[in-house]
Backbone:
C-alpha cells in the first residue's frame, strides 16, 4: 500500500541543515495497524504528515498504491488525500462554528457527495457512535472525549483506505482513551489500515507492528 524509499526531511537555515527525517525506508501493507513511537522531536509527526500528504520530503520516493506521490503537484496530492485518507488529531481540530452533524458532514461536502447520500451516511455514523442526541451541539458543548469521537467519526465517514492518528488519546482521560482505542481496534478488524503516533506503550499494543524513530532514523521495526 505504502512504500517509502530514502525519505529525508530537513529545515535549511542558511548553509546549515537541521535534519528531521533521515534515510527512511518503510513498507506498510494494506490492513496493518502500525504504531510510530519515539522521544519528542524524533520526527514522528513529520513522518505521519508526509504519509498523510500534508507535507513533502526534501528527497526520496513515496508510493501510495504504486502511485508516485513524490512526483505529484499539490492539487493531485490534495485529491488523493481527500479520497483515500482520514486524519485524527490530538487537538481535535473541529470547526467551532459548526454543529456535530456539520463537522462530520464536512469531508463529504469536499467530495461533492449528493445531499441524500450525505444525510444517510451521517445518520449512520451518528447512530454507530451513539451521538444522535448530540448532533445539534457545538464542539464547546462537548467533553474532550466526545470531541475526539466526533473527530474520529469525521475522519472515517468517507471510508478511507488509511486512517492516520497523531496522539489521538493525548488529551483524554484513560477511560475516554480506551474508548477511542477500542474503536480503532474495531475499525482495524473491519479491514481499515491504521497508522498512529503515540507515546503510550498501552496504545501501541492495540496494533500489529511498532516502528521506533530516534533522531530522524528508524531504529527498530517489530511485529507485536
Residues:
Amino acid at each position: 500500500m505504502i512504500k517509502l524509499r530514502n525519505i529525508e526531511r530537513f529545515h535549511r537555515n542558511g548553509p546549515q541543515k537541521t535534519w528531521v527525517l533521515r534515510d527512511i525506508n518503510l513498507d506498510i501493507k494494506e490492513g496493518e495497524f502500525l504504531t510510530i513511537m519515539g522521544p519528542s522531536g524524533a520526527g514522528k509527526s513529520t513522518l505521519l504528515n508526509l504519509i498523510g500528504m500534508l507535507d513533502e520530503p526534501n528527497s526520496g520516493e513515496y508510493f501510495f498504491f504504486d502511485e508516485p506521490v513524490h512526483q505529484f503537484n499539490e492539487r493531485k496530492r490534495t485529491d488523493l488525500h481527500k479520497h483515500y485518507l482520514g486524519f485524527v488529531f490530538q487537538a481535535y481540530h473541529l470547526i467551532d462554528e459548526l454543529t456535530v452533524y456539520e463537522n462530520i458532514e464536512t469531508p463529504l461536502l469536499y467530495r461533492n457527495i449528493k445531499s441524500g447520500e450525505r444525510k444517510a451516511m451521517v445518520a449512520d455514523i451518528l447512530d454507530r457512535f451513539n451521538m444522535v442526541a448530540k448532533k445539534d451541539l457545538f464542539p464547546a458543548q462537548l467533553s474532550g472525549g466526545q470531541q475526539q469521537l466526533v473527530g474520529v467519526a469525521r475522519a472515517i465517514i468517507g471510508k478511507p483506505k488509511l486512517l492516520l492518528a497523531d496522539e489521538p488519546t493525548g488529551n483524554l482521560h484513560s477511560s475516554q482513551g480506551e474508548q477511542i482505542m477500542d474503536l480503532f481496534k474495531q475499525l482495524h478488524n473491519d479491514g481499515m489500515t491504521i497508522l498512529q503516533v503515540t507515546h503510550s506503550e498501552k496504545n501501541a499494543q492495540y496494533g500489529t507492528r511498532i516502528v521506533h524513530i530516534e533522531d530522524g532514523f528508524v531504529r527498530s521495526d517489530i511485529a507485536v
Summary: Strands lie at 2-13, 16-28, 33-37, 59-64, 67-68, 85-89, 162-166, 193-197, 209-214, 217-223. The chain has a mean pLDDT of 94. The CA atoms of residues 127 and 133 lie 9 Å apart.
